[in-house]
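hey all, quick one before standup. I had two proteins in the batch that finished overnight and I want to keep them in one place so we stop losing track of which output belongs to which input. First protein below, input sequence then structure tokens straight from the run.
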Amino acid sequence: MLIMASNMTGFIQEHIELIKPLILSKVSGDDAEDIIQDTRISLWQAASQYRGEAKFSTLAHTIARRRVADYFRGKYRERKRVRKLIENTDEKNPILQSDIHWLSPAEIEVFMALGRGLTNCEIAKTLNKSSHTIRGQLKKIYQKLGCRNRMKLAILANQIYYRSKDES
């Protein structure tokens, strides 16, 4: 069953509306919109070769699930890469050598956002969290890394952030 080009836009939009809840249940914010857009593009590409052997909705759900899995795989790899960078930090920052393992993945995201020079409000908006949550996570990071002020923590985070950019 070939889909006529004139009907393709509506046909694909119908299926996007069906899979949006699946994507939004796993991912939020701009990341969800990116995944939805990637899925839309993949559906356009798949529609031109669709022959009707299976339901198009099955194809749409499969593509969406793969995009969500790719997203989480990328986040996992990024966290793993950041942890490795932190572990390989020079001896000048012994705080990071010993205590970084106690940071949760969410705290590492906040730590790296701090390294980009973002304010608490900007970090909250970027990570789709409340500024209250960010303050709480920063407080835990201060305790875990033994930093007494934001400047020292920001300098450590900044060094790691730019080192990770250089190795990318």
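OK second protein, same deal, sequence then tokens:
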Amino acid sequence: MRVLTCGHYLPVGRATALLETLTGLHLATGFTARARRRAAKKLIATFLPHMKDLLVTAPMLHADETTGRAAGALAYVHVACTEYLTLLHVGGRSSTDIDNGGVLKDFTGVLVRDGYAGYDHLPAIHAWCGAHDAEPGIMRTARCGRRACLRWWPFGAVLRGRVLHNHRLVRKVRSESEGRYRPGSVSGGVVRLSARSFIARSACR
């Protein structure tokens, strides 16, 4: 039942009903709730510190936040993750709330993030998330104030196509180098600079 409620996030009532169907036993909902509470305490006391240590020492992390409901109110769900590890915590959207996750404030590797200013104070090496490469172009046309710029609202789709083209180019160079590829010779910076130059040329024509 701990796996159902803490691992698969089933509500207590549904987890109890599922266990009763599988085992044929009658279980009180309160029993399942207490099992979840005991499991959560053990995770917080033992697993969570270990997870934070692993994330802080990772070479690269992705961080983001999104809205959700917690304790009956709107809150922000923060994530710090690698390809294999994901840590979530709930809070507001301030820099302090981001630090309360216990990972990013001590992380000094590469942090892949969006443009939200709440991450600016962190000591990591900051890298722009490729999924947000189209946003500066859209925002720039909105701030321009010129009515003629409204025709450039579809510009984000064009930029995404260019970024994906550059990504395929980098992969091709790596695959054809036959082991001669050196990290940094072709990098995400090429894609980033290309995207910026494309924005500069296209945003306010």
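Flagging for whoever picks this up: The chain has three domains: 1-47, 57-128, 133-202. The radius of gyration is 23 Å.
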